[in-house]
C-alpha cells in the first residue's frame, strides 16, 4: 500500500500541474469563442488547425528522447552521462531546426497554409518547448513533483494573463496610452494568442535554465546511439499518436468543402475541449506512473503491482466518465462562449470514451517499455494511426466531424486491445479482466443512457452517477478503507 500511496501523492501533485493548465485552456476557449474576441467560428477553426501542426512538430523535435532518458537513467551506472548526452542532443537538433525553418519558411507556409507571420512566432515556441523536455523529465525522475508543478503553473499563468490582457484590455487601454497604442494592432487576435504562447514557453525555459548551468556539455556518442535506437520507435509511436490526436482537424480541412471546413473545425475543436476532464486524469496518472514502471522493473515481482495500477486507473476513470457525461450540458454553458459551437456537442461522450481508452493503452504499454521492445509500441501506434486516417477519409465526407470522433474512439480502443494481447504473449501480467471489463461496460452503459436517451434529465443523470459510485464502493470498500487508513 505504501507504494501506491506514494503513487497517489505523485499523481495528485502532477494532477495539479495537469488539471490547472487544461482547465485554463478550457477557460480560454470561453474567451476565444466569444464573438467580441474572435468574431467568426472559422477563425477559431484556423487557430485550432495551427495548434495541431504545433503538436505535430513538438513530437518530431523531441524524437522520443524523453522516454529514452527515463530508461537509460535507470540502466546506466553513469547517470550524468545520460543527462549530458540527452541535453546536448536536443540542443544541437533544435539549433539545426531553427536554421532550416528560417531557410524554408515560405515553403512550409505553402505546404501547411499557415501565414509566414504566424510561422515566425511558432518556430520559437517550438524551440523553447523542446529545450524544456529533458529538464522537466529530470524533475520527474527525481520525484520533484512540486517544482515541476509550479513551473508548469507559471507557464499557464503567463499564457492566460497575456491572453486576457492582449485580447480583452489592450484595445481600450491603447486609446489612453501612447506606448500601448504602438503595441495594439487591429484584427491581430490570433497573432496575440501565439505571442502569449511564446512568452509562456520562454518563462518555462528561464525557470529551468539553472539545469543547463549544471550539466557538462559533452555527449557520449556510444550512449547516444543506444538512446536514439531505443527512442526511434517512441518517435514513431508519438507521430502515430499525433495523427490520432490532431489529424482529424487537418483532414477535416482537406476533405470538407473550403467554405465550411474551418467552421466545422471550429465547432469540433471547441466541443472536443470538454473531453479535457478525462484527459487531465489520464495525463496526470501517466506522469506519475511512467517513472514508477521503470523503478519497479528491476524488482522481484513487479507484475502484480502493474496489474493493480491499471485496475485502479479503470475504477477511477469509470467514475469520472459517468460524472463528466452527466455534467456536459452544464459544462458547455460555462466553457463555450457562443451557442453556434454547441452543434458539435454530440461528439463529446465519444471523445471522452476515446481518451479513457487511450489512458488504458498507456497503462498497458508497460510491457514493451520495461522489456525494451519499444518497436511494438510503434507497430501498435501505426495501426491506430492508419485506422484514424482510413476511417476519417471514409467518414468525414459523409458524417463530417462525427466521423472524426468515431475514428478516434476506434483507433484507441484497437490499440488497447492489441497491446493487451501482445503483452500477454511477451510479458504476461495478471490483470483482473472481468473486473476491468465490468467497470468499463457499466460506465459506458450509464453514460449512453444519461446523454443519448435521457439528456437534460437531472434525476436520471444523478441516479447514473450514484449507481456507478455505489457499485465501486461495494466492490472496493476494503481497498478504499486501506487507502484512507494509509493517508492518516
What is the number of domains? Answer: 1
Our measurement of the CA-to-CA distance between the termini, rounded to an integer number of angstroms, reads 13 Å
Largest sheet: none
What is the 3D shape?
Answer: globular
Q: Count all strands and give the number.
A: 0
Q: Hey, roughly how much beta strand do the residues contain? A: under 5%
Radius of gyration: 23 Å
The count of helical stretches stands at 20
Q: Give helix and strand order, one letter per element, not per position.
A: HHHHHHHHHHHHHHHHHHHH
Low-pLDDT segments, ≥5 res: none
List keywords for this structure.
488 residues; mainly alpha; 0% strand; globular
Describe this entry's structure for a reader.
The chain has helices spanning 2-32, 41-62, 65-75, 79-103, 105-112, 116-130, 133-141, 145-174, 178-183, 189-214, 221-255, 258-272, 276-297, 302-335, 348-364, 366-370, 374-399, 401-426, 433-453, 458-487. It is mostly helical. The chain has one domain. Helix 2 packs across helix 12 (258-272), helix 3 packs antiparallel against helix 4 and helix 14 (302-335) packs parallel to helix 19. The longest helix is centred in the middle third of the chain and has 35 residues, at 221-255. The mean pLDDT is 87.
Give the secondary structure arrangement, pairings included.
Layout: H1 2-32, H2 41-62, H3 65-75, H4 79-103, H5 105-112, H6 116-130, H7 133-141, H8 145-174, H9 178-183, H10 189-214, H11 221-255, H12 258-272, H13 276-297, H14 302-335, H15 348-364, H16 366-370, H17 374-399, H18 401-426, H19 433-453, H20 458-487
Amino acid at each position: 500500500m505504501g507504494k501506491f500511496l506514494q503513487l497517489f501523492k505523485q499523481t495528485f501533485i502532477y494532477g495539479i500541474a495537469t488539471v490547472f493548465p487544461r482547465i485554463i485552456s478550457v477557460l480560454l476557449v470561453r474567451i476565444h469563442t466569444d464573438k467580441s474576441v474572435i468574431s467568426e467560428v472559422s477563425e477559431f477553426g484556423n487557430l485550432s488547425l495551427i495548434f495541431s501542426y504545433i503538436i505535430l512538430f513538438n513530437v518530431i523535435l523531441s524524437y522520443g528522447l524523453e522516454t529514452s532518458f527515463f530508461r537509460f537513467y535507470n540502466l546506466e551506472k553513469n547517470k550524468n552521462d545520460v543527462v549530458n548526452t540527452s541535453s546536448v542532443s536536443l540542443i544541437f537538433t533544435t539549433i539545426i531546426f531553427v536554421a532550416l525553418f528560417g531557410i524554408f519558411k515560405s515553403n512550409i507556409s505553402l505546404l501547411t497554409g499557415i501565414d509566414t507571420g504566424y510561422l515566425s512566432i511558432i518556430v520559437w515556441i517550438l524551440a523553447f518547448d523542446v529545450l524544456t523536455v529533458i529538464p522537466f523529465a529530470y524533475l520527474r525522475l527525481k520525484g520533484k513533483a512540486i517544482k515541476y508543478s509550479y513551473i508548469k503553473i507559471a507557464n499557464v499563468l503567463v499564457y492566460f494573463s497575456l491572453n486576457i490582457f492582449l485580447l480583452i484590455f489592450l484595445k481600450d487601454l491603447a486609446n489612453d496610452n501612447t506606448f500601448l497604442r504602438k503595441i495594439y494592432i487591429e484584427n491581430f487576435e490570433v497573432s496575440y494568442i501565439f505571442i502569449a504562447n511564446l512568452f509562456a514557453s520562454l518563462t518555462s525555459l528561464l525557470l529551468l535554465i539553472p539545469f543547463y548551468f549544471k550539466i557538462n556539455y559533452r555527449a557520449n556518442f556510444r550512449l547516444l546511439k543506444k538512446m536514439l535506437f531505443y527512442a526511434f520507435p517512441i518517435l514513431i509511436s508519438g507521430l502515430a499518436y499525433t495523427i490520432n490526436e490532431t489529424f482529424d482537424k487537418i483532414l477535416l480541412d482537406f476533405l470538407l468543402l473550403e467554405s465550411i471546413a474551418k467552421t466545422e473545425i471550429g465547432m469540433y475543436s471547441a466541443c472536443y475541449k470538454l473531453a479535457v476532464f478525462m484527459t487531465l486524469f489520464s495525463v496526470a496518472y501517466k506522469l506519475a506512473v511512467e517513472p514508477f514502471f521503470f523503478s519497479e522493473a528491476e524488482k522481484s515481482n513487479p507484475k502484480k503491482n502493474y496489474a493493480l495500477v491499471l485496475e485502479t486507473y479503470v475504477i477511477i476513470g469509470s467514475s469520472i466518465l459517468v460524472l463528466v457525461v452527466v455534467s456536459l450540458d452544464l459544462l458547455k454553458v460555462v466553457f463555450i462562449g457562443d451557442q453556434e459551437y454547441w452543434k458539435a456537442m454530440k461528439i463529446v461522450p465519444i471523445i471522452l470514451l476515446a481518451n479513457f481508452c487511450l489512458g488504458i493503452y498507456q497503462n498497458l504499454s508497460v510491457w514493451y517499455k520495461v522489456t525494451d521492445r519499444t518497436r511494438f509500441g510503434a507497430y501498435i501506434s501505426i495501426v491506430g494511426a492508419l485506422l484514424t486516417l482510413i476511417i476519417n477519409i471514409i467518414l468525414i465526407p459523409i458524417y463530417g466531424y462525427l466521423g472524426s470522433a468515431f475514428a478516434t474512439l476506434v483507433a484507441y480502443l484497437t490499440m488497447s486491445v492489441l497491446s493487451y494481447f501482445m503483452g500477454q504473449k511477451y510479458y504476461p501480467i495478471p490483470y483482473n479482466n472481468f473486473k476491468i471489463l465490468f467497470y468499463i461496460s457499466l460506465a459506458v452503459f450509464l453514460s449512453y443512457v444519461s446523454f443519448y436517451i435521457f439528456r437534460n434529465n437531472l434525476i436520471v443523470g444523478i441516479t447514473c452517477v450514484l449507481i456507478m459510485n455505489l457499485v465501486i464502493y461495494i466492490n472496493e470498500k476494503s481497498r478504499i478503507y486501506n487507502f484512507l487508513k494509509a493517508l492518516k
